[in-house]
Amino acid sequence: MSFDVSADAYGRFMGRFSERLAVPFVAWSQVRPGLTALDVGCGPGALTAHLVEALGADNVRAIDPSPSFVAAARERFPGMDIQQSSAASIPLPDNAVDRSMAQLVVNFMPDPIAGLREMARVTRPGGLVAACVWDLGPRGRAPISLLWKAVHDLDSTSSGEASMPGTREGQLAMLAEDAGLTEIQDGELTVSAPFLDFEDWWEPYTRGVGPAGQYIAGLDDAGRKRLRDRCRELLPDRPFEISATAWCVRGSA
């Protein structure tokens, strides 16, 4: 899935979580000085920034299918190798990097197994392929889980994003195994982000980002108001924090 939105809209919608998630994800992926890394589905550069900090810009490459995100990432990291491409066809030779990483991307891949297999192809033998995806299962631990709960309260036929690949416990590990990775380990990463008030939380959803934003954009005014009111019932109108947990996996190429 290509996000046809501005980098600013995505940043408002998910950036405050993805920027925080990148820190433990880099550690989970065993990134250390002297290695090279590929950021698959880099978006505006949340994970890329931490990889550059750890490895230096010359040792980091990034791809994303969205032209607006590629442009934003290139502006943020001038001169870095950032290309418009999907995970299904990474424009790198075999054994090109030590780490191939996908943060909050696998669930949007049209064919996650093929994407992970392609990530393994460009990773040197003994290198790691790593991925993380929000927990959109029944425990409701994703940043967007409360929104989808409110949607379901009003429309029980909506499945939200819970059926997307990798969003349930154990699924990422199974995808990694099917992609041919070895020495697979999985776990979870948790971060939290602050919100000033309900409006600070709600406004990013009105920007049409991802399945949640597109769902809201497809509602009529009355439906949007009902959903907004239901969300307001579930959240305080004062400063609060939301914790979010992502499933993570790593395996040897």
Q: What is the general shape?
A: globular
CATH architecture: 3-Layer(aba) Sandwich
CATH topology: Rossmann fold
* Portion in beta strands: 15-25%
What distance lies between the first and last C-alpha atoms, to the nearest angstrom?
25 Å
Largest sheet: 7 strands, mixed
Order of helices and strands: HEHEHEEHEHHEHHHE
Summarize the amount of helix as a percent range: 25-40%
CATH superfamily: Vaccinia Virus protein VP39
The CATH class label is Alpha Beta
What's the count of strands?
Answer: 7
- Pairing-aware structural class of the strands and helices? alpha/beta
Radius of gyration: 18 Å
Strands of the widest sheet, in order across it, are 3-2-1-4-5-7-6
Number of helices: 9
Give the mean pLDDT.
94
For the record, the count of structural domains works out to 1
Low-pLDDT segments, ≥5 res = none
Keywords: Methyltransferase, Transferase
InterPro entries: Methyltransf_11 (IPR013216), Methyltransf_Superfamily (IPR050508), SAM-dependent_MTases_sf (IPR029063)
Protein name: Class I SAM-dependent methyltransferase
Domain Methyltransferase type: 38-130
Write the layout of secondary structure elements.
Elements: H1 7-28, E1 37-40, H2 46-55, E2 60-64, H3 67-76, E3 81-84, E4 97-103, H4 112-121, E5 123-134, H5 145-154, H6 171-178, E6 182-195, H7 198-202, H8 210-217, H9 221-234, E7 240-252
Parallel strand pairs: 1-2, 1-4, 2-3, 4-5
Antiparallel strand pairs: 5-7, 6-7
